[in-house]
Amino acid sequence: MPAAIPAQPPARLAEFEQLMRRHNRMLFRTARAILRDDAEAEDALQEAYLRAYRSMDSFRGEAKVSTWLVRIVVNEALARRRKDLRRAEIVPIRGGPEEHEGQEETRMSNQDRPDNAAERQQMRRLLEAKIDELPEAFRLVFVLRAVEEMSVEETAAALDIPEPTVRTRFFRARSQLRDALSQEIDLAIDDAFAFAGERCDRIVANVMQRLAAGTDDRR
Q1: How much is the pTM?
Q2: pLDDT tens, 42-70?
Q3: Cα separation, 181 vs 187, whole angstroms
């Protein structure tokens, strides 16, 4: 049964719309890091926004809004993925003791070179494919740390894991990608999983339409 949503003040809806637009790209990338599918990530993000809207009054400000939203999106994406376990191939993730990486990860050198749009596009596609091949634990940390440039502390809080775990998983993810892409990775990373204005508008419009209608097609 659809859950009824009381009529909402226009100012509250407008404020929530701005919140969505401010965090849309980061949260879409977070959902996609788990689901590895654009359409599934969009659906998960919309459902997560509805959950967030219903919970706004209970948000106590103990964490950053972005951290709170990432947690909601992660939970929604994981729940959606669990429903598809029987028909999806899940990459196993080892949960053994953390290995000491010996040194903090360092940013790869970003060589000066002429900007070639065709090469960048090809490199971006290769990067996205290689990120999708990472184990989920590494993939999610990499997207938040490298693509979204969240700090170790923010990533740990968002995923509810220790900071040393974030450092180790990020180090290993970068090592795997470095082996595959070498020094080209930094040239394409800013364009990974492009979040175009059309996608942003579509997600916002769908959520706003459902909120305005006063119904939540919660499954």
Answers
A1: 0.67
A2: 999 999 999 999 988 877 766 788 899 99
A3: 10
What is the per-residue pLDDT for 7?
59
Q: Do 8 and 83 have their domain in common?
A: yes
Q: Is position 106 within any domain?
A: no
Q: What gap in Å lies between CA 145 and CA 156, rounded to an integer?
A: 10
- Nearest alpha carbon to residue 92 among 125, 28, 135: 135
Domain that holds residue 165: 117-191
8 Å CB contact between 41 and 77:
yes
Could you tell me if residue 103 is inside a domain? no
Question: Is 134 found in the same domain as 70?
Answer: no
Q: What is the CATH number of the domain that holds 44?
A: 1.10.1740.10
Residue appearing with tokens 């919970």: 55
Classify residue 108: in a domain, yes or no: no
Domains in the chain, number: 2
CB atoms within 10 A of CB 106: 8
How far apart are the C-alpha atoms of 97 and 106, rounded to whole Å? 23
Q: Kindly report, residue by residue over 82-117, the tens digit of the pLDDT.
A: 876 645 444 443 433 344 344 344 444 444 445 567
> What does the alpha-carbon distance between residue 102 and residue 127 come to, in Å, rounded to a whole number?
26
